[in-house]
Model the fold of this input.
Amino acid sequence: IMEDGTDVSLSIAQIVQRLRGSHLHSQLERQAKDCLHRPEIKLESLKEDVRSFLRASGWEKRLQNAVYRELQLPQCHPTAPAEHLKEPLAYMRKAQASWEKRVLKSLNSMSTELGVPLARMRPAGEQKDLTNKWNEMGTDEPDLSRFRPVYAPKDFLEVLISLRNPNHDSSEDMTVKSHWGLIQVPLNIRDIPQLRQAYSELNLNNGQLGIDDHAHVHPAACMCPHGSVVVEQDSAAAQQYSRRGCPTGLRSDLWALILNSTNQPQDVMHYEQLKAGVIQHDLLVDYLIYKVSSSLVLLCFSRDTAVLEHFKYNSATPPKSYVHGKVGNEEFAVLYPPNGVIPFHGFSMYVAPLCFLYNEPSKLYSVFREMYIRYFFRLHSISSSPSGIVALCLQFERLLQAHLPQLFYHLRQIEAQPLRIAFKWMVRAFSGYLSTDQLLLLWDRILGYDSLEVVAVLAAAVFAFRAENLMEVTSLASAEAVLADLSTLKVMPLIQIFLFATAI
Amino acid sequence: MKQVHRAIFIFIFLNLLTCFVLHPEGGTMAGKVKWVTDIEKSVLINNFEKREWVQVTESEDWNFYWMSIQTIRNVFSVDTGYRLSDDQMVNHFPNHYELTRKDLMIKNIKRYRKDLEKESSPLAEKDENGKYIYLDFVPVTFMLPADYNLFVEEFRKNPSSTWIMKPCGKAQGKGIFLINKLSQIKKWSRDSRTSTFVAASSGKEAYVISLYIDNPLLIGGKKFDLRLYVLVTTYRPLKCYMYKLGFCRFCTVKYTPSTSELDNMFVHLTNVAIQKHGDDYNHVHGGKWTVSNLRLYLESTRGKEVTNRLFDQIHWIVVQSLKAVAVNASPSLTSSTANDRILKYNLINDTLNIVTPNGDIPDCRWNRSPPREAMGNYQVLYDEEQAQSENAERDLRSRSGQSLGSKGSKGSAGVRPAAATWK
Done:
C-alpha cells in the first residue's frame, strides 16, 4: 500500500510537471491574482476563497479537464526506461524500427529520383496563389503523376503478418485452431464475455442515440440547443455520455470537450502560424498529401512540431533526414517531416469525417490533431498496445474464429483470409467505407471507451452479417465483392447483435 | 432561423422529373407494357428493359412514352388536338410549360398568392411590413420586358443591389448573368439580336430579373445549390413524392461578393453543365454532396432544430410551388460521373415503380397511393387526398366532442401552423 501511495504521488508529480508552464497554468495564475481585489476574497481565508472563486468561475473545471486529458495519455512509470513507454516488447520495437527504415528509404529515394528536395521555399507568386486558394475543398492539384504514395496499407499488413515473438514457440500450441489467422503473435485480447462487460452500455436493452428515438433525452447531460453546450463542461462526463452515441447537434462540442480541444486564441494563432508555414515552404510530403487527397489540414499537421510530443508513447520514432551531403552527422540531422509523421495512401481519411463537424479550420485542426495523437497513430505503428493495429487484427481474427469457425475455415480454404479484406477497414477506422453518419457513431464509441477495440469488433460483426453470402463464395475476389459496399450498414445494431446476441 | 433559410437559396431549381397523367376513361389491356422514348439515355432504357417491357415506335400502339420537351409540345399543342387513351401514360403534364418557364412560374406564384389573399386564406397572411409570412420564398422578381418600368423603380430604391437575369425558356444555367447597374441592362438590350425588347408573347427573348441574394450560405467558402427530385402523380388531388437522395452541387471557386468578380459566372452558378468547363472542375466528385451529408453538416455546425426547420421549409416551398403550378421540367439525364449514373438509374427505377405498380399496363382508374414498400427512395411529400380525409376525420371527431391534437394535419386549406413542423 505504501508503494501504491508512492506511485500515485509520483503520477501527480508528473502531471503537475507537465501542466506547469502550460498556457492554462499562466491563465490560472492570472485569474488567481486578478480575483484578489474582489470583495468576497478575505485575507483570513485567502486560500479557500480563491479556490471557491476558481470553482465558481469554471476554472477549476478547466483544470480538471486538463488533468483528465493528461491521465488519458499513456503514463510512464518513473523508474521504467523511456523506450518502455513507447513499446515494452523488444521484438515489437525492432520490427517497428526496421519498418521505419524501409519507409524512410523509400521517401529518400523518391526525392532523389524525382529531383524534388525534401523541403524548399516557395516562390512569392506561388505563395500568393496558395493564400487565395486556402479553404477550398480540395479541387486544386499540382501534377502528381510522378509521385507515388510512400507505402500502401497492404505493404504494412505483410510486415504485421511476419511478426514473431522469438520467445514464443507457436508449435508448442496444441490446438490447430490458433494457426488459422495471419497474425502469429500472442497478445492479450478480450473475448466476448469480457467485451460484454467492458461495453455494457451497448447492451441491447439500452437505447442508443442514432438508432433509437430522435427525441430521446439522454440521461447524462442537459440537452441544450446548439450554442450552449453540455452545461457541465466536464470532459469525463462527456466521454461517458458518448458511449451511447452523440446527438448530431451536440457532437462537435462533445468531441472537443472529450479531447479537451478548447480552441482558445492561442490555438487559433498556432493554426495560423502553421498555415503561414505551409504557404512559405513546400515539402515533398505535401505532394504525398495532395496525392492522397488535398487536405490543407494535413499540410498544417505535417509542420506541427507539437505533434512530436506523442512520440514519447508511440512505438514509432520520427524519421531523421540529413542535410545534403551530411548523412550520419547529427549536427545536420533534421526531423522530417517536422511533425515526424509520414503520410501514407489514405491518410486523409482520418480528417475527412471531421469536415462534417466543424466549419472553423482551427477548431477542425485542433480536434484532428488530438484524435491523431490519442488514437489514429496506433493504426499504423507496430506495438503491443491493446488499441494498436496488431492487437486489433488479432482481436478480429480471434473473434471470427471463435464465433464463426465454419465461415473462417471456408474463407481460409479458398485462400480468402478474412484479415486481408478487413485490414484496410481497420487501418482507416472505417473512414471512407461507412456512410458518414454511421462512421461518426462508431467514432463516438472510440472516444467514449477511449479505445480502438470497437473497430475490430465491427469488422467481425460485418463478416457475421454477411456470413451467409460469404459461405457461397469460392474466391478472394468474390469475397471482396460481397464486402465491397458497406455504405448501407448500420453499425450500432451490428455491434450490439454481435456482442450481445451471439450464443457463446 | 429565417436567415438561414433565406441565405441558402430562394429559387430551388426543382427538377420535376416526371408528371404523369392518365386519361380519365376506363379500359385496360392485357400483356406487357409497350414503351417509346425519344431520349437515348441508358438510365431510361435499362430500366424499361429490366422490366421486360416491349419497345415500340411512336406510330404503333404504346402504353408508356417518355417524351422529350419538344415532343410534349408537339403532341399536346392546341393544333394537334391529341388525346391520350385510357391505357397511356406520359412523363409530363400537358401544361408543363406553365411549370418550367421562369416567367410563367413567377406569374403563377404571384397569382396563387393573390388568390389565397382573396379567399382570406391564413396562408396569405402578411406581417407589418407587408411581407408574406408563409409564402415569402421568392425574391423580388420582374418579367422583362413587360415589367421593365416597375423594375427600374425598384432598382432605384436600392441602387447598390445586384440582380440576376435569367432567360425564361432555358435550363442548365444557360444565358444567366448578373448586373448591378442599369446601364448593363440597356447594353444587353442593345446587344441582343433584336434592338428592342421582344414582346413577351413570343416568349423567346423574355427574361426574368430577380434580386440577387448576396449572402448565400457557404460551405468551405463555396456556394452551392440543391438538386431535388420530385414526382407528381396527380395534381387534383395533389400527390407528390420527393426523392430522398437529392444532392447539392458546389461551385468550385470560392465565393466572393466583390463586384469585380461578377463576370465570373463560375463563382455564382453551380449548374454542372457550366462548371464542366471551368478549370477547376473535379471529375471524380463533380463537386457534390448528398442531401443527407448536407443535413449532417448543418446539424453538426448549426444544430438540429434549425436544420429541421430548414428542411421543413424546403418541403413547404416545393408543395406550395406545385400548388401554384410552378416547376422546371427539364432535368439533365446526362450523367457526369459513375455515381451520378447509378443515382439516376435508381431514381428512374423508383419512379417507374410508383407510377406503374407491379409493372402493369397503365390504368387510369388506378388512383391509390402506393404502399410504403413500393416507394423505394421516395417519400411522400404531400398527399392531398389523405390530408383531406384526415381533416374530415378531425371535423367528425370535433363534432363528437373529442379534443384535437396540438399539431393539426394539413387540411384542405393547407393551414400551416406556426409551430416548427407541419408534418
